[in-house]
Amino acid sequence: MGIGRAKEGFSVFGILNKCVTPMGRRLLRAWFLRPIIDIDVINNRLNTISFFLCCEEVMSALRETLKSVRDVPHMLKKFNSPSSSCTSSDWHTFLKCICSLLHINKIFEVGISEHLANKLQHMSIDLVEKANSSITAELDYVSNLVIGVIDVQRSKEKGYETLVKENLCDELDELRMVYEGLPDFLEQVSANENASFPFSLECRKAPLIVYVHQIGYLMCFFDEKISEALLIGLQDFEFAFSEDGEERRFYYHTQKTRELDNLLGDIYHKILDMERAIIRDLVCRVLQFLPQLTKAVNFAAELDCILSLAIVARQNNYVRPILTEDSILEIRNGRHALQEMTVDTFVPNDTKIRSAGRINIITGPNYSGKSIYIKQVALVVFLAHIGSFVPADSAVVGLTDRIFCAMGSKSMTTEQSTFMIDLHQVGTMLRYHICIHP
Question: What are the DNA mismatch repair protein MutS core domain coordinates in residue numbering (predicted)?
């Protein structure tokens, strides 16, 4: 079915995967890899799908909300990693995710009418109760905790990477005020320095004192390097490095730049270090609620899977199968989930397997659809055991623990006849057969 590939292509999983969250896609893949025979769990999934098919507005609102839900535990792991930096975009995504999780409860509160609530109770669906127990008030506290520290718009407004809100730390606010006023301050210092030169400089552009992150303060000359003759009169000048670009720049350490290094230091990284310390403390406080966040995200993933199966059931005209513990398989007008999408007309077929006649022999000319028919029966049984609706007009499916497929390939190195290989495959099926029906 294409499971395990980077791109699913045309597969049953690809058709049923309408999930809008990464966690939902992973969970649906797990459902495909591990079908279940717990009839209560299967019926609970089928009941929930039936309920959502009766209230498409609620289903659409939930899917739109789930689009903003991300893998919160993975995000917190990234936030807590010393090798990764958290950007304003990361925190914005985190806050949007928490708000979307909280909005799920509001959709259930507002969108489910009294009639739908009675339907939930009649079908024994604990969807709303499960949502309330999974998405708790702790998430609202986490949201307020982050909002109280992080200002996701600050970076855009200030033009540099800064996240922590104002008035949270006086020392940090003072450093940021100095840093934001640094261009005007350095321009004034540059003018004073240029006026104090012992000779006039014939430059197209006046020298400037600039601040370079992690290096410090430097006097920048444009176009040409100071000649050795002029440097004799500037004994405190020390060449640092040059930079090529649209215009050449030459950087020097001077007495004034050294004073600024001692006075202000690497102010930008002082701000970053202080903000990182505050954010690390915030992450530690948020991590205390990791179990509650994980529970909420897991519920969102399960909800995403159910909604995906409901969407496919509505789009492809699937019906709810009836699961039973009896040894029976009855399918009326069954269809192949993939084949019907590749042809203009698909002829459905019935299947009846009961205790009295448990072996069906399929005959027909070449290219008549025998293999397609066998596969469609297996797919109907498989889909029923992951809790999905099935492509048929009706289906009664007895609990099935295994589906065997006899492959027709033969290896040239195997010293067995084709008949012996077939017997070996049938023998394997019989050895693994377990009667799960009374």
Answer: 7-342
